[in-house]
Amino acid sequence: MSAAYFKSPRQSKQQPGSMADGGIPIRKLIGTMLKSVKLDEQCKLGILEEKWEAAIGKAIATHTRPGSLVNKNLTIFVDSSPWLSELFRVQKDMLSKLQVTFGRDKILSIRLQLDPGKS
Questions:
Q1: Cβ(74)–Cβ(111) under 8 Å?
Q2: ∠ at Cα 26 (18, 31), nearest 5°?
Q3: Distance CA 37, CA 57 (A)
Q4: Structural domain contains residue 9
Q5: Is residue 113 within a helix (H) or strand (E), and if so which, with residue range?
Q6: Residue 6 domain flag
Q7: What are phi and psi of 108, to 5 degrees?
Q8: What is the pTM of this model?
Q9: Domain around 46
Q10: Alpha helix stretches (DSSP H) within the chain
Q11: Total structural domains in the chain?
């Protein structure tokens, strides 16, 4: 199976490190496009939401949800002040669990905050 390529009109001559026909791999082009419209972060959040309970545990997952993932910093929304206080005490353990599930290179830090969707 051969990979699909997009031939840039600016690439008339073969460049060092480029594909033989001067094309760009479609997956690289799509990845760049996704990042430019921030869909890449949305995809990552979708994966976080799908695996949230398994990663963080049922008790904590019941009172939390992933908020945003920006520059590998995950904001976690918490549904109440008492739970927010409790989770501050186990914040390092939560980060470790998330890093085991999703990768140390994907989540470098977490930030806990009251859920703005809960009133």
A1: yes
A2: 105
A3: 32
A4: no
A5: strand 109-114
A6: no
A7: -95, -30
A8: 0.65
A9: 39-114
A10: 26-36, 39-56, 58-61, 81-89, 91-102
A11: 1
